[in-house]
Design brief:
- Helix content is about 90%, strand content about 0%.
- The protein has helices at about 1-10, 10-35, 35-45, 45-70, 80-105.
- Helix 2 (about 10-35) packs antiparallel against helix 4, helix 2 packs parallel to helix 5 and helix 4 runs antiparallel to helix 5 (about 80-105).
């Protein structure tokens, strides 16, 4: 039992989990913020479901980046908090696009 505890508290394990979670969250963010990713979801799943999946992917990215923060696996937290803010910005993009679309229709 001591070996298992030692493995899960080792620097190597914490660094690996931190790196994997950060990389996956960053990849989800890059896919979501790219125009191709957003419109691919809209074309494939329709307007309502595509936007829901878009926001769920950003939510999954936030949850992935919270894992190293909650279990104190990271030393530099600035990049993690920045990634959380960017995911929150990505969640708001569909609302912003609908707002701009509505404003342009009035003109």
């Amino acid at each position: 039992m001591e070996k298992v505890k030692k493995f899960f508290t080792s620097k190597w394990f914490k660094g690996s989990v931190n790196g994997i979670c950060f990389t996956l969250s960053l990849l989800l963010l890059i896919y979501n913020v790219s125009i191709i990713g957003y419109f691919l979801l809209l074309i494939r799943f329709g307007d309502e479901q595509g936007e829901m999946l878009y926001m769920l992917l950003s939510g999954a990215g936030i949850l992935l980046i919270l894992i190293p923060l909650l279990f104190r696996m990271t030393k530099k937290r600035f990049y993690h908090f920045t990634l959380i803010v960017l995911h929150l910005f990505a969640i708001g993009l569909p609302f912003f696009i609908k707002f701009i679309e509505g404003a342009l229709r009035k003109i």
